[in-house]
């Protein structure tokens, strides 16, 4: 609620949340009905606009409508356009804010569609390259870097091995920014994703899990006296457990060998001969069967005339 003074009198003005919700629903409907009626630049501008709208704390009740509208925008990109557009969208969205929590929120509101998940993972890895470097500089200088925007190159693909290298650079201490570290661990979890990874990523995923265990041990939080460190350690434990379960669910690189592969074929000339029966077959006499005697009993005929 905002109060403005008009002609000496107080006037109460409400933020039009309902109108914005209806506008988002109308825009989503138009994008779904005519997905090929918009240019690439118009779709980029819509993504930027929706992300900026999502950062408004007064619109927390329409987050679902914002996600559906973003999903409709992403579905408008063709299959041939998407590989180039996902890199362009990552570079645009990563520069919308200087606050790492706002950027984490923009990553989290991406829709759970095929394009949305890919954008989410690629954007997470892009921000990780920037935030890990920022965390490392803060450890060296002891000063926070303010008003800096992400200017790193968007990676071509998301590989777990690249996450291992980033986590290896983190060395937390007593004066570390654990609020920033919490964001970094959250982005690591999102970058790994929840989908089934290929078998070649199994070793890297195990290494990443071990690196996170080491990082959890490096954070000193005696008796949970520091709330910021406690939150980071709690997030690390939950992430480690999830990655451990994902590692167990990864299918092996090759199928288990057939049971016949455990046996060796010999070149021996031994042959198995069947025993032949000697002598004539014995004649078996069949005993005559006993005929059953049928006892016939008299049948009493009932005169139908006696029945009523």
From TrEMBL:
Domain Coiled-coil SMC6 And NSE5 INteracting (CANIN): 11-129
Domain of life where this protein originates: Eukaryota
Protein family: Belongs to the FAM178 family.
A Pfam match: CANIN
Alphabetical list of InterPro entries matching this protein: CANIN_dom, FAM178
UniProt protein name: Coiled-coil SMC6 And NSE5 INteracting (CANIN) domain-containing protein
């Amino acid at each position: 609620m905002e109060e403005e003074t008009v002609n000496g009198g107080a006037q109460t003005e409400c933020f039009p949340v309902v109108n914005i919700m209806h506008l988002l629903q109308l825009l989503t409907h138009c994008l779904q009905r005519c997905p090929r009626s918009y240019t690439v630049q118009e779709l980029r501008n819509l993504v930027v606009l929706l992300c900026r709208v999502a950062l408004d704390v007064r619109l927390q009740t329409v987050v679902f409508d914002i996600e559906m509208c973003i999903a409709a925008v992403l579905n408008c990109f063709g299959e041939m356009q998407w590989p180039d557009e996902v890199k362009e969208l990552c570079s645009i969205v990563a520069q919308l804010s200087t606050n790492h929590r706002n950027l984490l929120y923009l990553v989290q509101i991406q829709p759970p569609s095929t394009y949305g998940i890919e954008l989410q993972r690629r954007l997470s890895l892009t921000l990780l390259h920037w935030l890990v470097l920022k965390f490392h500089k803060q450890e060296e200088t002891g000063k926070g870097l303010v008003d800096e925007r992400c200017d790193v190159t968007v990676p071509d693909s998301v590989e777990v091995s690249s996450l291992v290298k980033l986590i290896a650079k983190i060395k937390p201490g007593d004066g570390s920014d654990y609020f920033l570290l919490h964001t970094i661990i959250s982005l690591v979890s999102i970058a790994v994703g929840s989908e089934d990874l290929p078998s070649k990523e199994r070793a890297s995923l195990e290494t990443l899990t071990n690196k996170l265990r080491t990082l959890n041990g490096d954070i000193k939080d005696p008796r949970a006296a520091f709330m910021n460190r406690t939150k980071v350690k709690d997030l690390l434990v939950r992430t480690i457990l999830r990655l451990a379960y994902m590692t167990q669910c990864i299918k092996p690189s090759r199928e288990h060998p057939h049971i016949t592969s455990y046996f060796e074929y010999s070149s021996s000339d031994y042959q198995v001969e069947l025993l032949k029966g000697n002598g004539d077959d014995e004649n078996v006499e069949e005993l005559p069967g006993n005929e059953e005697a049928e006892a016939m009993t008299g049948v009493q005929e009932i005169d139908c005339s006696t029945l009523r």
